[in-house]
Amino acid sequence: MRSFKYLWIAALAAVMVAPLPAAAAEYPDRPITLIIPLGAGGSHDLHARGITGIISDIIGQPMVVKLVPGGSGMKGTGAFAKAKPDGYTLLFTHNAFDQLRPQTVDVSFDPVKDFKTVARINFGQPILVARADQPYKTLEEFVAYAKANPGKVNMGHSGVWGATHIPTVQLLKSAGIKVNLIPHKGGGPLLSAILSGEDDIGFLFSTQTLPHFKAGKVRVLAVAGDTPIPNSPEFGKLPTMASLGHPDVAFTMDRIFMAPAGMPEKDLKMLRDSFEKLMDHKSFKRFIKSIGENVMFMRGEEYDKLRPGRVDAYADLIKSVSGK
Amino acid sequence: MFESFLQGFELLLRWDIYLYISMGLVVGMFVGAMPGLTTVLAMAVLLPVSFNLEPMLGIPFLIGVYKGGIYGGSISAILVGIPGTGASIATTFDGPALTRQGKARKALEMALYSSTIADFLSDVTTLFLIGLIAIIILLIGPPEIFAIIIFSLILIASVSGESGIRGGIAAFLGLGLGFIGTDAVTGATRMTFGIEALSGGIPLIPLIIGVFALPEVLEAVESRASGFISEHVDMSKSGEPLRWHEFRRSIRTILRSTMIGTGIGMVPGIGQVVAAFVGYSAAKRASKTPEKFGRGELDGIAGPEAANNAVNGPTLVPLLTLGIPGDNVTAILLGAFIAHGIRPGPQIFTEQGPLIYALLLSIIIANVLFIFLGYVLLKPFAKAIQLKKAYLIPTILALSFVGTLSTGVTSDLVIMVVVGICAYILRKLKFDLAPLVIAFVLAEPIEYRLSQSMIYARGDILEYLFIQRPIASVFLTAGIIWIAWMIFGPWIRRRLRTMGT
After folding, report:
1. Are B295 and B97 in contact (CB under 8 A)?
2. d(C-alpha B189, C-alpha B135), whole Å
3. Distance, first Cα to last Cα, chain B
4. Which of A57, A312, B293, B462 is the most buried (most CB within 10 A)?
5. What percent of chain B has pLDDT over 70?
6. ipTM of the modeled complex
7. In B, residues 88-117, which contact A (CB 8 Å cutoff)?
8. Closest to B187 (Cβ–Cβ): which among A52, A104, A181?
9. Average of pLDDT values for A219-234?
């Protein structure tokens, strides 16, 4: 009975999206379930809809999206950790859920030990965005203003230990400032609060920010990390946090595909190769461009080398936030 | 502006748009009618299809899926008492009762007409007042949302308060269940008793199936055992259509609910569920026969169905004018817009005016198309229920399990059965479980919006809510006056009467 629903969606997806692939004798010989620990309509969902439609051309089997939101990503991640490690259940997540969030709550899995990265597709770079009527125009001016008026600035974020909360606390720590931190449920409500005047400033991603920046409603101060935003005429010249003396404000949201550590090595290699091939697929390139994103691919083996170090860095950040 | 409106009109002069809308409506309706399969899921699965179509076909297609899906959810709510989404919970108060009286088709038609009419009116209002609605939406922040939810709850409670204390206990139970999971403000998990499946909270679909469908089955089985089968209704009458005089009685309800829904639609996130409950409560309050509500009253279908569909128009406004989706459905639509190179935002009407007007008009037209399509398609559903009660009960039971499993998470099945057994016991103890579900749905937004308001207030929450935020203040004050009137009203009236004599 359990598979009834999968078959139904798989059939629908297969009929609607891709020509039905021929059955292969080796892995994968049946549809793969892709768990996303986030809700419908977000950037992960959007990426996955495009990717799953194309990857089936390469791996020969449909990949079926299953959204399991809740518990700040831990419900879906837990469901993935519990699934049989045969490679027929994969996870599409981001680094905050993979490397930080499991440290803050009691969970039955250890992502670094239990999961392996298949591929990093790209990353989103949080931009510090302020409403246009604010008295500061640059990051330095904002830091000076916040120092002169401790706790007065309403600074929003998209939820505790979410993708824009992390650069926010990194900045507060690096600049040594105090603000009134407002939690929201995602980037949309945060943007809405900044536009309506409830919040003054906050980190957002470029896709959401662009129309309001063009309309002159918001100002952009800096981009997290040390890499300027690629392929963006509007935000390409925005200074990076690293260039402004805040190298620790480094969080970028890496969109990563994970596989269970227990799956056969040769099947994992096949998946990693398939994702590398995907990057050169014409439809995929067109799709990524159409949703206003870039490809910033990294093979799973490379990304796995970065993860333990990141986990330790986040452990320090968590300690410094909860320790004060 | 008028020029791009006319250009938009020209974009609609091709027949294939209507073909795609109709396909969307039909697919959506069938998916929505499968218990547990949600409209959101259908839209997400079909989103890639729209990528490959041009925008004037792909987006109306998705909108068709959406509108068809919402109505499909009402079909399962009416026939088997399993609401597809939170929005059609209120429809299960009278829907299944009407089905058992052999009035399934009447109820389905009432739902169809009231939802399409309300949707149509709300979409037209939105088209003409989009600028004004955009301004109002930005005025509604966390404290206002908190105040509006509280006000709506008072409104709902004032009508359903037959079993005062029991209703209160049920509501508190619902709040408690709603607090299980992850605290949205601090991110800590709480009250999960160490069960990982509960870390995201109790999922809505298993809960409502457990509360509404399972006890129904258990009670039916029980009543048969005690010889209640003689009360058998002639199910072959299920095919009788709605008569004009029956529909006419509900026109006022539909218009009232349309206004309620359009208003509440401007509140992000909670719109449809709250609107449906308020619409139902308002219809019951205005009715000459409120005692019939909950026992199979057609007006009890029109009230929530019109209200939850009237929400649709205003929810498009933040999507179009700010590029901010208010819920999952609009988030998927945003994905479709972006993939087609349309960037919703403040300049969308100057940059892509004709296309946006054409899309808005196609949404309005979808409603008109659906009245006819729905009318034809609902007949087989009404017919399907023309079976013996003996078959109906196992069907509901099977659909409860299949519907719950649609999330693909097996632990949901356990949740559904546990909730179902508890709900059956509570019903035996004469508890009305509607307050439990309302409180469950609203527990999270109430807590969350209040916490946010307290952070903004920096300490003095009352001063913030009542003085700094005038709109919140109006709703909270109105709520307090309403409660005072319910408690002291009869007493004051009596005093006035004695003074008069």
Report:
1. yes
2. 37
3. 63
4. B293
5. 93
6. 0.86
7. none
8. A104
9. 92
